[in-house]
């Protein structure tokens, strides 16, 4: 049985984040996408949510596969790291896109404030701010359709479920900090060169902390670089996976 590539999206988005990346992969590479708890067509249980809930969901998604390659973005990267630490025998290779790592007290305070803003009814303002952080201005001007689709996905979210998922993202890297050095799967981290929150420095530090890691930066992109440069991301992932 071939090893599938399982892709885990970020907070506020859904499995369609990966459509253009999957389309750029070789047709014989099996790719599995799904909607996280509280997102899209995924389950929407009452909160609060936990990182363990997201890991348990991933375990169910890959139940029929004894071993997988795993790629996570943002919140999905934290889920992927927690899975890698808990189930090393089920993971062949790990790819982490736009992952936070080792956030400062100030950065942690800022993300907690964004969670509080959502819970206080300010969700629409956080969507606008997120769009600005996620796309370079040049890409947003050249591809308004892509940006509009992401905005539509964000606008359709259940605000309560979003806040509960964002609360997990707000503390996730702190929660798993002690587990990251135990990750033994060969790991590739990728960052957008102009990502202001999940920075290239974080990505490099994360790669240096796992047992076998390397990092790549895609210059001129921000957080959603898999939408800005899907072909580049697909090539980087494919080359890394094909080494195994």
Name a few traits of the molecule.
single chain; 244 residues; alpha/beta; 11 helices; 13% strand; globular
The total of beta strands comes to 6
Q: Could you spell the SSE succession in H and E letters?
A: EHEHEHEHHHHHEHEHH
Largest sheet: 6 strands, parallel
Helix content: 40-55%
Distance between the termini: 15 Å
Specify the number of helices: 11
What fraction strand?
5-15%
What would the principal axes of the Cα set say about the shape? globular
Model regions low in confidence, pLDDT < 50 over at least 5 residues? none
The helix-and-strand class reads alpha/beta
Mean of pLDDT: 97
Quick structural summary:
This protein is an alpha/beta fold and 244 residues long. The chain has helices spanning 19-24, 51-61, 75-86, 105-119, 123-134, 137-142, 144-155, 159-175, 200-209, 225-228, 230-242; strands at residues 5-8, 31-33, 68-73, 91-97, 187-192, 213-218.
Give a verbal description of the structure.
The protein is α/β, with parallel strands linked by helices. It is 48% helix and 13% strand. The chain contains eleven helices and six strands. Strands 2-1-3-4-5-6 form a six-stranded parallel β-sheet, sandwiched between helices. α2 (51-61) crosses α3 (75-86), α4 runs antiparallel to α8 (159-175) and α5 runs antiparallel to α7. The relative contact order is 0.18.
């Amino acid at each position: 049985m071939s090893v599938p590539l399982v892709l885990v999206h970020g907070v506020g988005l859904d499995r369609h984040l990966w459509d253009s990346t999957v389309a750029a992969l070789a047709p014989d590479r099996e790719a599995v996408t799904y909607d996280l708890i509280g997102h899209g067509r995924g389950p929407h249980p009452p909160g609060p949510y936990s990182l363990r809930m997201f890991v348990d969901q991933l375990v169910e998604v890959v139940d029929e596969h004894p071993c997988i390659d795993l790629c996570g973005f943002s919140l999905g990267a934290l889920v992927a790291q927690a899975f890698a630490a808990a189930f090393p025998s089920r993971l062949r290779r790990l790819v982490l896109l736009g992952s936070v790592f080792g956030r400062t007290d100030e950065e942690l305070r800022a993300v907690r404030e964004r969670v509080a803003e959502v819970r206080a009814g300010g969700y629409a303002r956080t969507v606008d701010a997120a769009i600005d952080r996620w796309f370079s201005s040049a890409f947003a001007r050249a591809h308004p359709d892509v940006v509009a689709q992401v905005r539509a996905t964000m606008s359709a979210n259940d605000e309560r479920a979003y806040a509960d998922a964002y609360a997990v993202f707000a503390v996730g890297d702190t929660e798993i900090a002690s587990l990251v050095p135990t990750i033994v799967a060969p790991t590739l981290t990728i960052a957008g060169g102009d990502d202001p929150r999940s920075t290239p420095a974080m990505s490099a530090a994360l790669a240096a902390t796992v047992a076998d890691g390397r990092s790549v930066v895609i210059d001129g992109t921000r957080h959603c670089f898999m939408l800005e440069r899907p072909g580049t991301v697909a090539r980087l992932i494919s080359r890394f996976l094909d080494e195994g």
